[in-house]
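Supplementary Text 2. Reproducibility record for the structural model of the 377-residue chain.

All settings were left at their defaults, and a single model was retained for analysis rather than an ensemble. We include the record here because the model underlies the residue-level annotations in Supplementary Table 4.
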Amino acid sequence: MNFQPQYWLAVGALLGSLGLISGCAGDPPDPGIEFTERVNKDLAGAYQPSHNETAGWGATWQLDQQAVAVAWLAPVTHERLPLIIYLPGLGEPASGGVAWRQAWAQAGYAVLSVQGHSDDQSIFASTQALDGNFRGLASSHYTAAALRDRLSTLQKVLTEVRARAAKGDAQLAAIDWNQVVVAGFDLGAQTAEALAGALEPGARSGVAIQPKAVLLLSPYVEADARREVFAQMSAPVLSMTSREDEDPFNWVSSYRQRQVLGESVTVAGSVQLELNKATHKTLSGTELFNRSLKTADKGGDQPGEAPKSRGHKRGAKSGGGFHGPMQGEPAPDPKQVAAIQAIGVAFLDSRVKHNPAATEWLQKGVPAWLAGAGRLK
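Retained model, structure tokens:
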């Protein structure tokens, strides 16, 4: 097995270049830098993928009078690239999940993130959100009709991607449409599940792709979900949840509900990562490297954030202005972040690139490396 610790060090360096970590000589120690160092220390003993320089952009496309945000991140190369379609969570922008998207892009994957305006951060300006009724807010976004709308939006985006590639966009023309992965967090996980075939009998996603693998962060499972629906999924699945994966919208009652998906998938090569301390915010991969470690150590709230609470009032307005429902979560645990990054990339390399070193590490190396941080099964 070829270990390359400099790969994960480069991930931290690039996150720093994005402004997620900063510091000046003479200033007090930057908790973001300390956190990155701790993540890199854990990653040094994990599976080591290839390393690529990356470039990206973000834009809003008007498709049939609908505003759709897209974000592109990919290796700087002239080679054909596997494509990961990433679908952020409810209330997130297309730029969400940057920690995971950066790791995937550096490992050699083009990543296209898609988020419609109706599901992005603008929802927090709604009357329900301002009243703290996040469960009521979520109820309209997880319906079958809302899912169909998201699938229709995604198909329009992919049609536009192909059209731009045909007109000479070299970055988009590099996509290998025979090597497509779907990945999603939270609400995006529901969409990704549908793309992989987790639909009621007779239903179709309407999106012209055949995923080679599926990566789900905080998978979505309805309270009365039938296990046979998830057994219909057509590609290997990596589902990731945690004992601390508490839905801030108060819509999914327990992480055990999310575990049902991983326990129901029957496709060979599927695995479920059950972490011990990864919060819903950690699984989102958004704004992980600039949050104070002191908050995690003390279990308190950061200045200006809404206080932690349980139930539908979580994330109500505070003196610092309105905050979303995940704002009161404690800072992430470095080992949990490292586990999501390393196991996610190893799964992709094993199932999409058929890398034997990745497969070996997933089968033999993960248990000892995870230790008490969780388990892969």
